[in-house]
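FIELD: query
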Amino acid sequence: MLEHGFCNRPPSREESLSPKSPTKLVARPAGRLQGRVRAPGDKSISHRALMLGAMALGETTVRGLLEGEDVLATAAALRALGAEVVHERQAGLWRVRGFGVGGGREPADVLDLGNSGTSARLLAGILASHRFTSFMTGDGSLRRRPMQRVIDPLSRMGARFESRDGGRMPLAIIGSDEMVPIEYRLPVASAQVKSAILLAGLNTAGETTVIEPEATRDHTERMLRHFGAEVRAAAADGGGKRITVVGWPELEGRDIVVPGDPSSAAFAVVAAAIRPGSDVTVENVGVNPLRAGLYQTLREMGADIAVDNAREIGGEPVADLRIKGGGLKGVEVPAERAPTMIDEYPILAVAAACAQGATRMLGLAELRAKESDRLASVSAGLRVNGVAHEMGAADLVVHGTGAPPLGGGLVETHLDHRIAMSFLVLGLAAREPVAVDDGSPIDTSFPGFAELMGGLGATIEAA
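FIELD: result
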């Protein structure tokens, strides 16, 4: 039996409420897609804006926040920790009044983070550096995702963790306000683990350093600087990158404008690229180079993608993307590109299914630790839709013929929003409609996905 009454914790949302009824969706073959759309707010930046707003003094205002279920789970958790998080719907903004780097209170209840791995891992860094005990859980998918990768470094800093299942949630976090700074080399490139350590370092005396083997998305570092923290980045000995945060800063509330999520924009971009004659503009997309691997790959495949109205908002590069549909060809995607597009491989596999020739995707081991085993889920979805491919332990080869894929399959999503959206996009280009067994997880990251795609000429509807 675990200590601290963990076995007597209140039931989680999943345990106490009836689960959502699965919503089967079907996408039907489409003609050319046309129009202008705006992608929902960047999920990674939205999480971080709320968290750093909660750790700052004064008021933070956030415009363009993604109002998907994952980000709403973060907002609820921060309220439980003592932050004031208010949505002013008519004004189109969120206001956060924070408790400061060392503030916050012990949550009165279990923090249920739904399907959000970002919430779980980044909040673990904040909770670890506070002298109270907190409990985290999530839905069935989140409870299968590995947390040991954040537990190990945070334990070295002074926090303690207890779990029932080898470092997976439900998880008890016994925090400490006497954390010690560390220098930690990430075993695998992970922006979430890096961010958890840096957030813990904010409430730790001295300098906390993370060494990453390959550069990962740097939204945390950019936003920490925006709030007033001292963050240094430099090349590491032996390769990679050193990121250091100086502890105990006085973060001050800031105004944040969240750009469109490049991972969400990817679905409209690929849908247009694989439908000849399409002409689609996706406005206000974040084009951070550490998130741009998919767009680089699509251009190598022959996609016509123009970058218009490039600008910078809140320290993040932003632009409008105009995509014209046409033929794609297979390419090899090197393993070192994976950190810049790890969430986009499912939709890239759809583009590859419509391309001429083989597309080899390498370095995909991290896909097995996402909301589902994404590599296996993509392979299964391709198989039921008649797309020739081979799957290895950490690679995928898709053989496109340059003609529309067969389609006609029912794809098991395994509660994974990106699997659902990717194969619905496949249905727009296939010869036969493609269905997914459950589209409800789409709301975690892209509420209104079917309607947005419908505005471009797609047909995605309940089956």
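FIELD: remark
The mean pLDDT is 93.
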